[in-house]
Amino acid sequence: LWCTYHTKSLVEKACTNTLKALNLDYLDLYLIHWPMGFKPGDKDLPLDCNGMVIPSSTDFLDTWEAMEDLVISGMVKYIGVSNFNHKQLERLLNKPGLRFKPVTNQIECHPYLTQKNLIDFCRKHDVSVTAYRPLGGSSEGVDLMDNPVIQEIAKKHGKSPAQILILFQIQRNVIVIPKSVTPSRIRENFEVFDFELTEEDMEELLNLNKSEHHKDYPFHIEY
Fold it and tell me: Which ranges carry the NADP-dependent oxidoreductase domain (predicted)?
């Protein structure tokens, strides 16, 4: 659910548009993409004169009620959230009259942003975690996959840095969704079930944490 459709009356329309675009009768999973809404209209990213997003006055608790209606109507099977911090997720879970809790929270997650506290919170409340951008990005001009610690672990196991980063999430019991359009890399992304990272490997990867996000957004977000 994109941010310009957070108004309760627009949620069903947004889902209908998605179903038509995908030529489907229902979705297995539908997520609120961000906890904040943007000004509704023709522009996906409505910006003010300073280049910042124009927010809407919507509350994600109201948006969630419309998401729940999608489950009841059969348009979607499960609903979840994305980019919610623990305070926002806790507020949603404590919502009076909650009919369906989020099945997952999709968040940016990689060794430079391990998200341990948020993952622990989600696990405590039986909300699965989905890691997007698991291969990270650059930090101070150095790409995550070029990090010497990750390179050394990859060399030890005879695997690629990308495979190390994917298995890192799997062994944390985190759903991982790497993205690629290259057939050879897509195949490589699947070839992570014939080896195991040691406790020492996992500790080294966790110790790389910088609580660092790899994308600048034209709006303020609190983590």
Answer: 2-207
* Chain centre to alpha carbon of residue 216: 16
Distance between start and end Cα atoms, the chain: 20
Rounded Cα distance between 137 and 74, Å, is 38
Amino acid at 117: N
Q: Which residue has the tokens 């910042």?
A: 52
Tokens 């209209």 found at: 41
Judged against a pLDDT cut of 70, whether residue 129 lies above it is answered with yes
Long-range contacts of residues 141-148, Cβ cutoff 8 Å, at least 24 apart = 144/110, 144/111, 144/112, 147/111, 147/208
For residue 91, with 0-12 CB atoms within 10 Å meaning exposed, 13-18 middle and 19 or more buried, which class applies?
Answer: middle
Pairing assessment for the beta strands 138-139 and 128-132 based on DSSP bridges: unpaired
Question: Could you give the CA distance from residue 163 to residue 153 in angstroms, rounded to a whole number?
Answer: 10
Kind and range of the H or E run holding 62:
helix 60-73
Backbone angles phi and psi of 20, in degrees to 5: -65, -40
Distance CA 38, CA 52 (A): 11
State pLDDT tens for residues 9-67: 999 999 999 999 999 999 999 999 999 999 999 999 999 999 899 999 999 999 999 99
| Residue 94: predicted pLDDT | 98
Of the pLDDT bands very low, low, confident and very high (cuts 50, 70, 90), residue 187 is very high
Could you tell me which of 120, 163, 112 has the C-alpha nearest to residue 138? 112
